[in-house]
Specification:
about 25% helix, single chain, Rossmann fold, alpha/beta, 10 helices, six-stranded parallel beta sheet, Quinone Oxidoreductase, Chain A, domain 1
Amino acid sequence: MHRLASHEPRQPDAGEALVRVHAVGICGSDREVYQGNRPEGYVRYPLTPGHEWSGTVQAVGAGVPSTLVGRKVVGEGFRNCQVCDRCHAGETTLCTAGYEETGFTQPGAMAPTLTLPARLLHALPDGADLTAAALLEPAACIAAAAIKAAARPGERVAVVGTGTLGMFAVQFLKAASPAALLVVGTRPDRAELSKTFGATEFRTRDEELPDDIDVVIETAGSASAARTAAALLRRGGRLVLTGIPAPGADGLDPTDLVVRQLEVHTVFGAAPDAWAHTVRVFGAGLLDPLPLVTHELPLDEFPRAIELVGSGDPKVGKVLLRPWADPHPYAGTGTP
């Protein structure tokens, strides 16, 4: 269940920034929060959700450069401690202090304003489209996968999955100048969009698939997606898994991994280097999130937005909420 509550901006303390939220995206994790089935330890109720967002800095606290005021920004979600060994190594998504994330355990962006540590912000070019920028959080997660995949020019690469993450994976891999870029999915209607973003070939999973791909990024999160992705690889190929399937999914065969000497990586969230890479690629015009947006709704239409995200309708892509599209300043509060 959810309710709408009056919103009072929290003025930034030392090291913090107050951001006027332009738009906030909804993904499957937000549906888990709304339905109350997000894994224990990865949500704290009551909660203002919203981890995919863009906005403009309105005010900063002590110790934060005043030049940040007025800048268009996006922000990292993971609230890392900055002092543990993993944080010092730049692996902030593995922070040993425990899991804290904007929109899940800390107040999120489904409100007119968001106050958060300024160190998490990434400034955008002055001319950046903030509606498109609201999708940079999922893009950063795929940037993390692309960094781990380390695709080199001339390699044969593939993406399994045709949702928002899959379409970002196509764009990041295209930027690496592959010899071939295959997209594998279950929806033939995504073929045209895949090729618009740079795919050279599209096949559904029930078609004959190659087994000589150098690099595969899996984004589908379905029960069989990991096995489908691994089967595409040549011996010694590289696989990056980003999807999180439901319990009981088909696991990878360890014998197959060893005998074929496959290199397997996983991604959960995005560390600062992936965020910085995403913002650079976006600023250079090499990443185009806007065609993925199909719906923009005011904040008080949150129930409809959640319904759209879970509808399975192929016409529904990315759904955004616009907190300032409604004349009444509300903040959404979720309870399981």
